[in-house]
Design a protein that fits this description.
422 residues; mainly alpha; 2 domains; 17 helices; globular
């Protein structure tokens, strides 16, 4: 009943909200199994390799998810055959680029830098960008088709359950092969996302007009820069810690990052429905309704995030010990990252008003500047001060990004309400 009330409050189906809420706990369970199964150095290798794969996958997306979300619904109304052709082109381009990125990652010098010495790990490096790109594009296509539950079931439920099963099987067999786990899980996920994203097409594909292709590319351009900046902003610090401080520190940092990500769970749960409504309201210049939507989402986000953050701060040492005794030194890192996560919940979808209102260039430049600042600050902090300083730098820059974007959004909406007001 409580779930239905919350779902009704933010205008989202209860099943969809349940899938969103199930994702982070399931991903947490995967990390616990991996940390208990693997030695800390091996888990650190996995954390760095999988994060590098996510970064490479983001690089290969070239803005196709953003173009899909914006243009595919219109194309579906006009001609499903043209829409199917556009999706096929996007999928082919992304997977081809992801393969190139993966092969570049697997060069021995790069693999050595990441602490990956076995050939199976290098093969995993080839496949991980394919998986990362495929999962994101799959979600964008299904969301644009209106198949919202299918869009979130794969990344939020099926993927972590599959990883949990594969990791448990490896653990039970007595194997400690990181590469074997990476390759097995990557191949399984590629098959699932590929079938899920293409199963909705039944119409014959048709030629696409040059103007449509040009519009698609233009839309993808700034969306690509923003999306790439976002994933660099949130994930590059794990790779930096692994390269500068070693894979054991990377393992500790990765676990703290995964736990801190639970604080963003409420915002992720409401974004699916809020984005579509907010985009429509901004397109019609109905700023009063847009502000009301933002405030409702902020209130829900803060209401749910506050107890999660409090619980993580109180039980953090015990939760880290679940992973293993070696991970308890990551509590300060967790606490610092939770600061940034809670500010993210406080601002809610307010920063997203900037790009949803059509200010794509400015949004991508602001986000790109913060991503670059985070990389530079993380490298400097890791070299000179250590693990906790990296977390502090990331937290400070996260707060800066959210506050500056929210202030810009306030100006767009012409509202005098406080930026962080729930």
């Amino acid at each position: 009943m409580a779930l239905q009330r919350i779902a009704g409050r933010v205008g989202i189906e209860p099943e969809l909200l349940a899938a969103r809420l199930a994702g982070p706990p399931l991903r947490f369970a995967v990390q616990v199994v991996l940390a208990r199964w693997l030695p800390i150095a091996s888990f650190g290798t996995y954390a760095v390799v999988s994060t590098a794969g996510d970064l490479a996958g983001a690089g290969a997306l070239v803005g196709q998810p953003q173009a899909t979300l914006r243009l595919l619904p219109v194309q579906l109304q006009r001609d499903r055959g043209v829409a199917a052709t556009l999706v096929l082109r996007a999928w082919t381009l992304v997977l081809a680029l992801a393969l190139v990125f993966g092969l570049a990652l697997a060069v021995p010098a790069i693999a050595g830098l990441l602490g990956a010495s076995e050939s199976w790990v290098r093969l995993g490096l080839v496949l991980m960008p394919l998986v990362a790109a495929s999962v994101v594009l799959h979600e964008a296509v299904l969301t644009a088709q209106g198949r919202l539950l299918a869009a979130v079931i794969i990344p939020d439920v099926v993927r972590p359950v599959l990883l949990l099963g594969i990791a448990s099987a490896f653990w039970a067999s007595g194997s400690t092969s990181v590469g074997g786990f990476l390759v097995t899980s990557a191949l399984a996920l590629l098959v699932i996302t590929g079938f899920a994203a293409t199963s909705g097409w039944s119409d014959q594909r048709r030629p696409v007009a040059a103007t449509t292709v040009a519009e698609w590319r233009h839309t993808a351009k700034f969306g690509y820069l923003a999306a790439l900046s976002l994933i660099v902003f949130y994930q590059s610090d794990v790779v930096i810690v692994g390269a500068v401080l070693g894979v054991e520190d990377a393992a500790v940092y990765a676990v703290a990052t995964r736990l801190a990500a639970l604080s963003t769970l409420p915002l992720l749960a409401v974004q699916t429905s809020v984005f579509a409504r907010l985009s429509s309201q901004l397109a019609e210049s109905d700023h009063v309704a847009a502000e009301a939507s933002v405030r409702a989402a902020q209130r829900t986000s803060v209401l749910l995030a506050a107890p999660i953050v409090g619980l993580l701060l109180i039980t953090g040492p015990w939760l880290l010990q679940v992973f293993g005794e070696e991970y308890t030194r990551g509590y300060v890192v967790l606490a610092l990252l939770l600061v940034g996560g809670f500010v993210n919940a406080l601002t809610g979808p307010l920063p997203d008003v900037v790009w949803l209102s059509g200010r794509n260039r400015g949004h991508s430049m602001l986000l790109g500047a913060h991503a670059l600042a985070n990389v530079v600050a993380s490298i400097a902090a890791a070299h000179w001060f250590g693990l906790r300083a990296v977390a502090l730098a990331t937290a400070v820059i996260t707060v800066s990004w959210n506050v500056l974007s929210a202030l810009w959004a306030k100006r767009i909406l012409a509202t005098s309400a406080p930026v962080l007001a729930p």
